[in-house]
Specification:
By secondary structure, the protein is of the alpha+beta class. The protein has two domains: 88 residues, FAD/NAD(P)-binding domain; 83 residues, D-Amino Acid Oxidase, Chain A, domain 2 (2-Layer Sandwich). It is built from six helices and eight strands; from the N terminus they run E-H-E-E-E-E-H-H-E-E-E-H-H-H. The strands form two sheets. A five-stranded antiparallel beta sheet has the order 3-4-5-2-6, with helices on one face. The protein has a three-stranded mixed beta sheet with strand order 1-8-7. A hairpin with a 2-residue loop joins strand 4 and strand 5. The longest helix has 21 residues. The protein is elongated and about 60 Å long. The structure holds flavin-adenine dinucleotide.
């Protein structure tokens, strides 16, 4: 198996069991014949200088983020008030974020200058048909495990990691890494979702 993150000298990593936890990055899925989630939403977010506030703000409506919502999350960096401003939408996340930043309630509180780069990332909205295989378990966004209502995936990534760890422990104890044995992982997360 080749991976981008771990870099052994010959580019190949060998192990008894692989846990695929690559988030919403699916290049290894193709090598492993896993397919990819059938549905995605898009996100775009920036961190900017922003007027001091303690309130998290949530914005709805087709003009802000069709199909989902936008947010302003205040924070401080080096003592300076800043905010993460972003949105989830079913299309054109960058364009909608630019318009959101230019809208009156946001633009009036932005520091100088429009940010040059937005962080963009897809979030899967459908799980893989199979989240296990021969010596393989797939967790979190890599498995497409998110909440379909808000696209939140933190809870499911932690839950699936915990269930995968329990399955991996049983596999290691019994030296049993077949797809049939590891399928108990998928039954476990399905029973919890
Ligand atoms: C803008 C935005 C806002 C969000 N807000 C919320 C929220 O409020 N609540 C919520 O529940 N969820 C939210 N989510 C979704 C949430 O972030 C994800 O569902 C969650 O982080 C998934 O966890 P994960 O561990 O599966 O993947 P990730 O957190 O994406 O972690 C995967 C890691 O694997 C690394 N990686 C990828 N490929 C390789 C490789 N080949 N080798 C080594 N490492 C690799 C990546 O760099 C990354 O560090 C948000 C997502 C975005 C983009």
């Amino acid at each position: 198996m080749r991976t981008a993150g771990a870099r052994p000298e010959n580019g190949v990593i060998r192990g008894r069991l692989l846990v695929l936890a690559t988030g919403a990055a699916y290049h290894l899925h193709r090598e492993l014949d896993l397919g990819i989630p059938a549905r995605f939403v898009q996100t775009a977010q920036v961190e900017v200088d922003f007027a001091d506030t303690a309130e998290v703000e949530v914005y709805f409506g087709n003009s802000v983020a069709p199909g989902s919502f936008g947010w302003v999350v205040p924070m401080r960096r080096n003592g300076q008030p800043r905010a993460r401003i972003g949105l989830v939408t079913d299309r054109e996340a960058e364009g909608y974020l630019l318009r959101f930043l230019q809208s009156a309630p946001i633009a009036s509180r932005l520091g100088d200058g429009m940010p040059e780069r937005f962080h963009r990332r897809p979030i899967p909205l459908a799980f893989l048909a199979q989240t296990f295989g021969e010596r393989l378990l797939v967790v979190g966004d890599a498995a497409g495990l998110t909440k379909p209502t808000t696209a939140g995936g933190i809870y499911y990534s932690l839950l699936s990691a915990e269930l995968a760890a329990s399955t991996a422990q049983r596999a290691t104890e019994g030296q049993e890494y077949s797809a049939k044995f590891l399928s108990q992982y998928q039954r476990a997360w399905k029973a919890r979702s």
